[in-house]
Specification:
Layout lengths: L1 H8 L2 H6 L3 H35 L62 H10 L2 E4 L2 E4 L6 E4 L4 E17 L16 E15 L2 E8 L10 E9 L5 E8 L5 H4 L12 H10 L4 E9 L3 E11 L2 H4 L8 E13 L3 E14 L9 E5 L11 E6 L2 E15 L2 E14 L10 E16 L5 E2 L4 E2 L17 E12 L15 E12 L4 E12 L14 E13 L1
Antiparallel strand pairs: 1-2, 2-3, 3-4, 4-5, 4-23, 5-6, 6-7, 7-8, 8-9, 9-10, 10-11, 11-12, 12-15, 13-14, 15-16, 16-17, 17-20, 18-19, 20-21, 21-22, 22-23
Length: about 550
């Protein structure tokens, strides 16, 4: 009746203006509002019928409510004149994500974030648009497609991280007498393709995430995580299963939020001692607004025994982290923390308890790893520890981490060899957000998260998402004493200078471009005689990323 009366009373000039795109959008909004009103009316009728039956003594579980389908809308479409101009496109329609967004709502969707408690999950469901059908709620709380019961007690959600890399190496020709090595001038790699499956019953959350990507070559299928979490304690998450315990600020950012395509070498080396992807873990973490503490007892990695069937004694270790936020204001964030990890014993196989430190030049395109410690034999224990600091001023961010590695070698006693104390030097990073909201601090992970996309990419309205530029310098020193990794193998040192730019057209899409210059001292421990005299070179790599 309202639509009929309105259409009859609107003059012809307004009817002509109704053909405008914005008026068509308002019509769609009106139809959606009418549909939501009909749904609410049906739910109110159901609740009132249930309450009436309960007052007359009928068992609540046996109440049946006849639900008549609401009659379809047969009147003319509402005709509404052109809405008033709104500066900066701040007028939002239902279901729109064109902005402007809140600070929390503008950040990149990160499916690997810590699981929320049941109360937080219900709050997120209430905030986001949700369709209620037959006692089920279908929506996108925290950006993840989710099907849940109306009370949120049962829920199933999906997530995705897909990263495709393309790039190559320049100026890596070998010196006379050296092997060429694998430094492809142009290649591609599906770096990470993760599907996140999450099941919830109240505060119990089970995660299973298969991994279809690979660090160096396409086609490797493995497991990223498979664990059970309990979130019923205040600001605390308890975890058991295959998990990635994090001791470094860089890892705590999550892979989809990195400033560069990969972590610096020293971070990768220390995190894989007793942590890393798909490590069996038992432990938990507690986060407040100004501090976080985490500790995990860990075992072997998923797939260790299938890769080496001679393993007779699996690894055990521990990972711990504490971080704080001593000062915070609108323009300033200060982060300080420390991480520690230890492999109490490494896997014992048919060759004994051995360990080799080795890594690429921070561009995982399948290239030959130039950095190595050599094969360390008779390893009794390996540990690493170090501080982490960060400072944000408005859109400018500085971070640094330092880790010291120790290797104890002892069994058998007659063959006891010196301990290694590697000063694996500093990693320094600088970042500036050119447009969009600057990187912000996430108290739940004690790490800095991505820039904020205030408006989605829309060049017709001069909206460009968010963009940041970054620079990094990292040094990893694995040299200690002569013949540490065998005769003539002393370990070596790697220095990497890196620059990059990241563009976020939406909260779900990220485009990256990195330039990498590396300098690696010589080592006879690199197979094929690839690094007998030391190597240097350059790499350029781009990445397309989608996350939901």
């Amino acid at each position: 009746m309202f639509g009929t009366a309105l259409s009859a009373g609107v003059p012809s000039w307004a009817m002509a203006a109704s053909q405008d795109d914005e008026v068509a959008a308002m019509r769609r909004e009106m139809r959606q509002m009418l549909g939501e009103i009909r749904q609410l009316q049906a739910r109110v009728a159901r609740d009132e019928s249930g309450a009436k039956a309960a007052r007359h003594g009928a068992p609540a579980g046996r109440v049946r409510v006849a639900r008549a389908a609401p009659p379809p809308w047969t009147g003319p479409e509402p005709v509404i004149g052109t809405p008033p101009a709104v500066p900066d496109r701040t007028l939002l329609t239902f279901g729109s994500s064109s902005g402007p967004r809140s600070d929390a709502g503008s950040r990149l969707i990160t499916p690997e974030g810590p699981p929320s408690s049941w109360s937080d999950f219900r709050a997120a469901t209430a905030r986001d648009e949700t369709m209620h059908i037959g006692g089920m709620a279908i929506g996108f709380p925290e950006g993840r497609p989710t099907i849940a019961s109306d009370d949120g007690a049962y829920a199933f959600s999906l997530g995705l991280t897909a990263q495709e890399d393309i790039g190559g190496f320049v100026g890596t020709a070998p010196k006379r007498g050296e092997g060429k090595g694998n430094f492809n001038p142009l290649t591609e790699n599906a770096r990470r393709i993760r599907l996140y499956f999450s099941w919830r019953y109240k505060d119990w959350v089970a995660n299973v995430t298969p991994e279809f990507g690979n660090a160096t070559a396409d086609g490797s299928v493995s497991l990223f995580e498979a664990n059970l979490n309990y979130t019923g304690l205040r600001h605390t998450i308890l975890t058991v299963g295959y998990f990635q315990p994090r001791m470094e600020e860089e890892s705590a950012e999550r892979a989809s939020s990195f400033e560069f395509m990969e972590r610096p070498t020293i971070v990768d080396l220390v995190r894989n001692l007793a942590g890393g992807v798909a490590r069996f873990s038992v432990g938990g973490e507690h986060a407040e607004k100004r501090w976080l503490a985490a500790a995990y007892f860990t075992g072997q990695k998923y797939g260790d025994r299938s890769k080496d069937t001679t393993i007779t004694d699996s690894q055990t270790g521990a990972v711990a982290r504490i971080a704080g936020r001593p000062y915070v204001s609108k323009d300033i964030d200060v982060h300080v923390g420390a991480g520690a990890t230890s492999a109490f014993k490494v896997n014992q196989s048919s060759t004994g308890r051995n360990y080799t430190f080795s890594d690429n030049v921070e561009m995982p395109l399948g290239e030959t790893s130039l950095l190595t410690s050599g094969a360390l034999t008779n390893v009794a224990q390996i540990w690493a520890a170090g501080p982490q600091v960060g400072f944000r001023w408005r859109n400018f961010l500085l971070k640094s981490e330092y880790y010291h590695i120790g290797v104890e070698r002892g069994a058998p006693p007659a063959a006891r060899r010196p301990c290694r104390r590697w000063a694996s030097t500093v990693v320094r990073r600088g970042n500036y957000t050119l447009f969009g909201k600057g990187r912000a601090y996430n108290a739940k992970t004690a790490a800095f998260t991505t820039p904020g996309v205030i408006y989605d990419f829309d060049p017709l309205h001069d909206q460009w998402g968010a963009m940041e530029v970054s620079g990094r310098w990292s040094v990893t020193d694995l040299g200690d004493v002569p013949d540490q990794g065998g005769k003539g193998i002393n370990g070596n040192q790697q220095t990497v200078w890196e620059g990059g730019v990241n563009w976020y057209p939406t909260r779900h899409v990220k485009l990256m471009l990195d330039y990498d210059h590396f300098i690696v001292s010589r080592s006879k421990g690199v197979s094929g005689g690839v690094n007998l005299l030391g190597r240097s070179g350059n790499a350029v790599m781009g990445r397309v990323q989608a996350s939901f």
